[in-house]
Amino acid sequence: MDRLKKKAAGRARRHRRVRKKVAGSAERPRLAVFRSERHIYVQLVDDDEGRTIASASSRCKEASGDGKPSEVAARVGGLLAARAKEKKIASVVFDRGGYRYHGRVKALAEAAREGGLQF
Hints:
The protein is α+β, with helices and mostly antiparallel strands. It has a single domain (3-114), classed as Nucleotidyltransferase, domain 5 (2-Layer Sandwich). 39% of the residues lie in helices and 19% in strands. The chain is built from three helices and four strands. β1 and β2 (40-46) form a beta hairpin. The model has no long low-confidence stretch (mean pLDDT 94).
């Protein structure tokens, strides 16, 4: 197994392990993070209904732009917090998606907290 497949398989295994314990509801949705090499995506998911309540990514016009990847991730977190506030959501369950709470994931989470989300 080459290095990239092994890395992806490890992340998937960690994500499955976390998802056993973390589930979102309509009152407290799951804030799910996906990180690619170039972009970062985040969404609020109601697992009871199986639907996405709100989402944001570094591909959105409001969040895209120049800057370090962690700065872009922070803009995405702030944008998601604003969209959650519009939908009257104040509390979420954080799902880091098998990634370490470090760098872009940490910047996104802290910006979402500053935007008013509690987790």
